[in-house]
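Complex record, three chains
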Amino acid sequence: MMTIVLTALQYLGYILIFPGFLFCFVIGMLLCGIDRKIVARMQKRVGPPVLQPFYDFFKLCGKETIIPAAASKTTFLAAPLVGLAALVVLQLFIPIHGFSAFSGMADIIVILYLLLIPAMAAMLGGAASGSPYAGIGLSREMVTIIACELPLVMVLLAVGKVVGGDAVTFSFSKIANYQLANGSLITHASLIPAAIAMLLIIPGETGNHPFDTAEAETEICEGLLAEYSGAPLAVYKLTHCVKVLTLTSFFAALFLGGIGTGIVVVDALILVAICIVLTIVSISFVHAITARLKIEQVFKFYWTIVTGLALISLVLAWYGL
Amino acid sequence: MIMFNYIASFFLIALGFYTIITKYNLVKTVIGLSIADYGVNLLIISVGYNPGGTAPIYTLGELTSASYFVDPIPQALTLTSIVIGACVTAMSLSLVMKLHESYGTLDTREIRRLRG
Amino acid sequence: MSFANFLDYHHFPVYSIMVLFLGAFLIVLFGKNKFMRNLLAFLAVSISLACIVALVKPVMLDGEIIAYWMGNRAVAGGYAIGIALEVDALSLFFALLISTAVFVSGIYSLQYMEHDNNVPEYYTLFLMLSGGVIGLVLSGDIFNMFIMVEILTFAAVALTAFRNKAHGALEAAFKYLVVGCIGSTCILVGIIMLYAQAHTLNFAQLSAVIPGNMNNATKLAFALLFVGFGTKAFIVPFHPLAADAHGAAPASISVLISGVLTKSGIYGLIRLTYFLFQTMNLGTFQFLLVFIGSVSMFVCVTMALAQHDFKRLLAFHSISQIGYVLAAVGLCTGLGFSAGLYHAMNHTLFKGLLFLCAGAVLHQTGTTNLDELGGLSKKMPWTTGLFLVGAFSISGLPPFNGFASKWMVYQAAYQKASETGNIGFLFVTLIALVTSVLTLASFVKVSQSVFFGRLPAKYENVKEVKGGMIFAMCLFAILCVVTGLFPSAVTKYLTEPAARAVFSVVNYIDAAMGTGYAASAMGENLPVVASFNFNELGYWSPISWLLILCIALLAVTIVAVSGKYDKVSESSEIADSKYDLFFGGEKSVYSQVGGGDLFWGFKHNWRHYFSFMHDLHSGIVNDYSLWAIVALAIVTLFIQIVL
């Protein structure tokens, strides 16, 4: 009985504190703060303090929530919560070096679909608000997802092929174990194009510059979020931050596994460091030097250049190079 | 002799399909279906034909191993097939009638509200 | 015959078919009375379902194959002269799907059709259609299969044209009739050519005799039968018919057309390719099925993205999902069959649910045009919720059932690719995954254009549908969730026995023809049972996943509520009426993006493809007939070359 309670508490701890909710909250916000700071410095601005996302979040939580008369109330309010919860669950499945909160259950296909849930939730929430801006935002968000999906799938298949050999695998724990035994996958020559493709996919999935057409605050008033205010908006902002963390740690788990000590706390710190670097490389640098693309350009970019890179990787991995 | 039947039946089926594809009149399409159906019936009957066989009508006890008759099963099948063919014709003609009422034409090129 | 004898489960297959036909005739006689009519229809569908469910234990779990000879005319002198019903796990699996869909659709019809004219005729045709499909899957006689195909085609055509005042109903019915008849003609010619070679119509005996004696005539017969059943499954290039027929038929019939008719086509294809011609280990034939499956998947999902009509969009999705089934079944691995059958089942459930939702919208608003509808979620909350369950299921979001089966399809295709070293199967996985996202996209489009967005003024007074219809939709929704939450149980008790049945042709033959017949008739051609494993069914455990999600959701909710999440005020409380509609703009500048233009960024890049496809689906019946004949020619050539 005692052990059951303890196990339950342990898993509850995983879900709520590390690597679940609290971890996602703090590190995600931190990543976004760093991103904003770096972009500002690159643009010769002072920029906000690194903790600015925290301030924004708590400030927003204290504000009034206004629900438009045309909105469907339940969907409108529930959507942000579902999206955030799905992302936290996703983070639980991503192994940190040898440690994985729910080992054995993780699977890259599951993760692929879990990544869709926050976007889906945001789209339904936006649609439920009844705003025309949200309608346009929804359209663009969906197109961005379609654009990212093809190269992302190819990257994942390539990784699965390299790890599994003849018995290709979708299992995340196998990918992690392979890297523990054989070193990071980034050293694998055939996966380098895939890693580059993945770096380009991260800003698309998180909706950062130059792929933030779905939010485009200057033309469609943040699209899906146009009607949101107060706490639900804060949850959306938080979801965005957690998504940055999730995708960067996803990258780390796919390509930079095997770097670590075996002590969970140290590994977590290493992961955070890796995530910061990845955020700076794939989000901040790209953000600072590009302007927003049109939606059809986003689509074209992903289905030509990024897909091309991923395809090269896939074919190379397929023929065992 | 029976070869001629086979050739004729496949010719009829092909002719029926050709009619369906090339004729833009709904009634002709229905005629095409019927022609193909006649082809099939001819084929079924020919398959069961044994040269020189008698009609397969025997009572219990009459049947010996020396009896030589045409295969009765395809004839039964043909009856079914004819019935089905009649149903097809009836149903499609009633549809054609209704179509003519609501579209005012029998040209298949103009009966295409559902497309794309 | 004693009463206990009467209740012997060996008779149940016959009952399940007969009771539907009997119901059809009785409704013709007594259908004028509304109560009688509803009672008869309800009794017929529920007794049929009960008979099928009662067979689950002996057939699925104990592995018995029921061979039932009408009038006790069993095998004599090595020839099957009687008319047989043969029920193995594969037949029963499809019968189970079909009778479930028929049952739910029947319940839904009770209220859905009450304002139509000629309701007795509707029920007669409905029961004929159901009986035809169940008869098709339980039949052990190839000519009986043809008869059943004809019955269900006629019933389906008549039901498509049932609301003959509706937009395009007659036209759809006519096209369906013409191309359907081309398919039926192909089936009949194929059957006759087989009969000429083997002198039997019994399926089991044909399966024993034909594979060892292949010649040009049997190959042509194979091609004809393949195309014939292909038209029943509406695979590419027969998909325009499905789209037309679904769009025009009443929603309860669309459920049957998509969930039941296409399944019967798939069933026919499986029986044909793996039993009658035993092409299990032929790589080239696997290629044909997987290729058709992938093309169906992709072409139909892109066609669906371009649609402006709710039901037409669903119809294209239906064929897209059938593509998954066909591709998975074509892989010829244990996992592939399991995945394909699982997806077939899920397709019946979620597509049934979605069609019923579309029917509810049509029933209350009188239209299914995506460009006219909007904002119904406030008026029809139940329908909206149930629609979302269906949409998530078909897009494969966890934990709904679509995810479980799609996961298996991906895994099966990818495994096949690495086992055979053939990169083609890899692209099947890719197409399947991309199709899944495009499916999600078009359901986002539907939810935006029908249930969310702005409510047009003319629908201000729309009400939620009645309880009976909601009940029917709930049945499907519950089944969607349950089959999604317990994938291991579903695979163990339903799909795995059915998949095993595909691999045990010899048992199927022996059950009908007597033990040892297969060995003696086929000699050295006795099919080697392909190795198959069901091990890779996945470490995916939806229950624990759901638990985690719930806890996380709870945690998030608590935090959110403590952060004044509940401190909401509706903007109607704001005095200024110009904010009535929404907060971020004014009523006067409102214009909603039309459903057809929603994914402009995607369509713009694919505009040549889309305009090409639009021109291709010309709506002229001659073109569709031409496609059918060309498909027949190609398949004939292919089979002559490879077999």
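Note: The radius of gyration of chain B is 20 Å.
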